Amino acid sequence: MPDPYFVQVSTAELADLRRALEVVDQHAELDHRYRRMLADSQRTLTAEEIRLTQARGLAKRLLVLVKAAGPDFRSTLPAAAQAALDTGSAQANALIYDPERD
């Protein structure tokens, strides 16, 4: 099993995660610390490839940002944004909890 620190992931494969972060960026009311976390995450996704450990970190950040947006955040979104958030959250969960990615 390869060390996940050295496994590279194409950011093109993380398009669902990127779209979910865009939804949070466009619709969530976040304080400056969460905004900085969001900006850093989006900046990381501008590279062509990132380490698997970075991708997992971004996935965890998405879940934190959604939680920080509030318990009713998802229900306030238009249908297309809800779908993008759900798809991105599913990808985030797969990155975090899927042992096959190692």
Rg (CA only):
13 Å
The chain-level structural class is: mainly alpha
Uncertain stretches: none
Biggest sheet descriptor: 2 strands, antiparallel
- Strand percentage lies at 5-15%
State the end-to-end CA separation.
7 Å
The percent of residues in helical segments reads 55-70%
Number of folding domains?
A: 1
- Global mean pLDDT: 93
Strand order of the largest sheet: 1-2
Number of strands: 2
Shape: globular
Brief overview, please?
This protein is mainly α and about 100 residues long. The protein has one domain (about 10-100).
Write up this protein.
By secondary structure, this protein is mostly helical. It is globular, with a radius of gyration of 13 Å. The chain has helices at residues 15-27, 32-44, 52-68, 79-97, and strands at 8-10, 49-51. It has four helices and two strands. The protein has one domain (8-101). It is 61% helix and 6% strand. A two-stranded antiparallel ribbon has the order 1-2. The longest helix has 19 residues, at 79-97.
List the helices and strands and how they pair.
Layout: E1 8-10, H1 15-27, H2 32-44, E2 49-51, H3 52-68, H4 79-97
Antiparallel strand pairs: 1-2
Task: Label this structure with key terms.
2 strands, 61% helix, single chain, 102 residues, 4 helices, mainly alpha
